[in-house]
Design goal:
Distance between the termini: 78 Å
Number of domains: 2
Number of strands: 23
Helix content: 25-40%
Largest sheet: 7 strands, mixed
Strand order of the largest sheet: 15-16-17-14-13-19-20
Bound molecules: nicotinamide-adenine-dinucleotide
Shape: globular
CATH superfamily of the largest domain: Aldehyde Dehydrogenase, Chain A, domain 1
């Protein structure tokens, strides 16, 4: 049976690609191709950019309150169709339906934040900055913005970007991951139904060709990216070289420090969800436990017991805790990391290799894997695995834990589990990481705060959503005003004007 072929979304409608390349979209639990997606060519992307540029003046001049009403209608549609988006995300990514629904909800929360645009876009005003002189600042949209997103959050990560860009009066081109394109296309339909003018939001699934067109085209003013560190660095450097503002979020290696005074059952439960939820394919997944002092042995026993009870299967089956990983090559890469951990001398406590799921023999499954006695020289410590592999590093003190984390190249999220306010306070102050949890394993900030890491986890200056998102998608203009009375007018002066 021939597979359905998706289309591009340009100018408010589905459009055929002018290129001929197609990508396969796979159901990772079944291991079979379920549909295909056009890989947008340069000409397709140029068309989307031209359409977005043409739609910009009208949308820019639409009052923020009207933009906000459109987004509010869009939010209602998202809520209505949340199960459908969750099903699409689960089908193409493999995560459980419940997990997918939670991630769609986190995306909806960004739309709720963006609906506040009329308030958020107010500038500042100061009367009498000089005698008879006033000054005010305005936040103006920047034009055509582009978003390039990863496979692991098919609905949520795009919604970190475009609701705010659009609320600010920009037009947007989304290049979703070619592995999970369906949510983005469905979202485009909801935006149209909500009344968004054609051309304001466009979707061009594709690969490097589409991305490079966005990065180099003079009419694209800003690029938001989420994905792996090497590509984030490439996006940052290329787009900046072409004069664009860029925020490029990269990979992660998130540590959870556990102090001896932590409540151990609570901590072990929290770490389970953070390490193995979404098969470890979350940029905020905990992949390293830093066990301080004598907490290591009892903690490890609890982690092992819980990991071995997890139910592995297809994401749409009730009672399943963890689904497959995204693809066969990614599964093989994770297996390679597990092998390297064994070869380099880490102690394999729970082995996720060789797992079989009845009825899903071709699925891309990796079982929960737990390593103890990992050192900072080992490959499984240094590199992002992005799979259900949790490693434990043993240290003697909080000092040592902080030093270990601060020496790691990644700095997306981290957490500490402790009963001591003083230790936690010291940790939050000294740790060089963008997002910190205190007895919270996945400290993803709510939409009205900003999301982003430090060091190799983010290239650029501004984080996503929250007020940093508003800053990213606007530029500030300061206006100084004077209305002199005739009697006040004086002769021209060539000296630097000073006020007051
Ligand atoms: P990826 O870097 O392979 O792909 C991300 C996007 O870049 C996709 O749209 C892809 O089509 C495009 N791309 C891939 N190779 C490219 C190339 N050579 N040139 C131009 N574009 C290219 O990432 P992924 O595998 O889709 O997602 C997993 C990664 O994303 C992990 O490293 C994870 O940590 C990271 N991630 C980070 C965050 C965060 O907030 N920091 C959030 C989610 C995922």
């Amino acid at each position: 049976m021939s597979k359905s072929i998706l289309k591009l979304w340009i100018n408010g409608q589905y459009t055929e690609s002018r290129g001929s390349r197609l990508g396969d979209v796979t159901n990772p639990a079944l291991g079979t191709v379920i549909r295909q997606v056009p890989l947008a060519c340069r000409e397709d992307v140029e068309r989307a950019i031209a359409v977005a540029k043409a739609a910009f003046p009208l949308w820019r001049d639409t009052p923020p309150l009207r933009r906000s009403r459109t987004l509010n209608k869009f939010r209602e549609l998202l809520e209505l169709h949340r199960p459908e988006l969750a099903r699409l995300a689960s089908e193409e990514h493999g995560k459980t339906l419940e997990d997918a629904a939670g991630s769609v909800q986190r995306g909806i929360e960004v739309v709720e934040f963006a609906v506040g645009a009329p308030h958020l876009l107010k500038g500042e005003h100061a009367e009498n900055v000089g005698r008879g002189v006033d000054c005010h600042s305005m936040l103006q949209p920047i034009g055509v913005c582009a978003g390039i997103t990863p496979f692991n959050f098919p609905a949520m990560v795009p919604m970190w970007m475009f609701p705010i860009a659009i609320a600010c009066g920009n037009t947007f081109i989304l290049k979703p991951s070619e592995k999970v394109p369906s949510c983005s296309l469905r979202i485009a339909e909801f935006l149209k139904e909500a009344g968004l003018p054609d051309g304001v939001f466009n979707v061009v699934p594709g690969d490097k060709e589409a991305v490079d067109t966005l990065l180099t085209h003079p009419d694209v003013r800003a690029v938001s990216f989420v994905g792996s560190t090497p590509i984030a660095k490439y996006i940052y450097e290329t787009a900046a070289h072409h004069g664009k503002r860029v925020q490029a979020l990269g990979g992660a290696k998130n540590h959870a420090v556990v102090l001896p005074d932590a409540e151990l059952d609570f901590t072990a439960d929290a770490i389970m969800g953070a390490a193995y939820g979404s098969a470890g394919e979350r940029c905020m997944a905990i992949s390293v436990v830093v066990a301080v002092g004598n907490v290591a042995d009892p903690l490890l026993a609890k982690l092992k017991e819980r990991a071995e009870k997890l139910v592995i299967g297809a994401g749409d089956h009730k009672g399943v805790d963890m689904g497959p990983v995204i693809s066969a090559p990614h599964r093989d890469k994770i297996m390679g990391y597990i092998n390297s951990g064994v070869e380099q001398g880490a102690k394999l406590v729970t082995d996720g290799r060789g797992i079989k799921v009845a009825g899903y023999e071709n699925g891309f499954f990796v079982g929960p894997t737990l390593f103890d006695k990992v050192t900072s020289e080992m490959t499984i410590y240094r590199e992002e695995i992005f799979g259900p592999v949790l490693i434990v590093v043993r240290v003697n003190s909080l000092d040592e834990a902080i030093k270990l984390i601060n020496n790691n190249a990644y700095a997306n999220g981290t957490a500490i589990f402790t009963g001591s306010g003083a230790q936690a306070r010291r940790f939050q102050n000294e740790i060089e990481v963008g997002m910190v949890g205190i007895n919270v394993p996945i400290p993803v900030p709510m939409a009205f705060f900003s999301f982003g890491g430090w060091k190799s986890s983010l290239f650029g200056d501004l984080h996503m959503h929250g007020m940093e998102g508003i800053k990213f998608y606007t530029r500030t203009k300061a206006v100084t005003t004077r209305w002199p009375e005739v009697a006040e007018r004086s002769a021209s002066s060539l000296t630097m004007p000073t006020l007051g």
